[in-house]
Amino acid sequence: MANVKTMPAADLIAHLHPHDQPSREHTLAAVAQIRELVRYLATVTGPHTASTALPAPNVVSDVSLILRDTMPDLAELFQALSARTEQFADSRRLYTYLEDDGDVPPGGAAHYVEQAATKLRDVASTVNMLRADLDTAGEAGTMFNLRAGA
């Protein structure tokens, strides 16, 4: 366990989720881990612990810039989710719970697939806009630091 704590993040992820062995289980586990990491960051940067987790403005800036650097990958992920969703638009195996109730929507299940794919593409665009905001916030924070002993 000690090695896991000191392992670089990229090595840890490659160990937990080998890129050459993609699976449903690895995908869902990785998403759950993202959720937990965000929960961790929200907890440790809260009002009661911020002084130790974020000791100076330049550290806040570093966090913003690292998160900014993840935005292209996040936008690409949402684009991939959209593309994969669209692949099911013509599937005859696709149905909605409304169809089970006899209430068939116009366009059938394909309507909902297209709607979901469009929303995922919209999220990708929003993520790209967020990247610019994080860049501005992060760059501003690099302009100052705390003096030692002050």
Please outline the helices and strands.
Blueprint: H1 2-6, H2 9-16, H3 24-44, H4 50-53, H5 57-86, H6 97-100, H7 108-141
Helix pairs in contact: 5-7
Structure, described:
- This protein is mainly alpha-helical and 150 residues long.
- It is built from 7 helices and no strands.
- The radius of gyration is 21 Å and the shape is elongated.
Q: What descriptive keywords fit this protein?
A:
0% strand; 150 residues; mainly alpha
Summarize this structure briefly.
This protein is an all-alpha fold and 150 residues long. It has 7 helices and no strands.
Question: Would you tell me the structural class of the helices and strands?
Answer: mainly alpha
Give me the Rg, rounded. Answer: 21 Å
Q: Major β-sheet, in short? A: none
Q: SSE string, helix = H, strand = E?
A: HHHHHHH
Give the helix level as a range of percent: over 70%
**Residues in β-strands, percent:** under 5%
Number of helices: 7
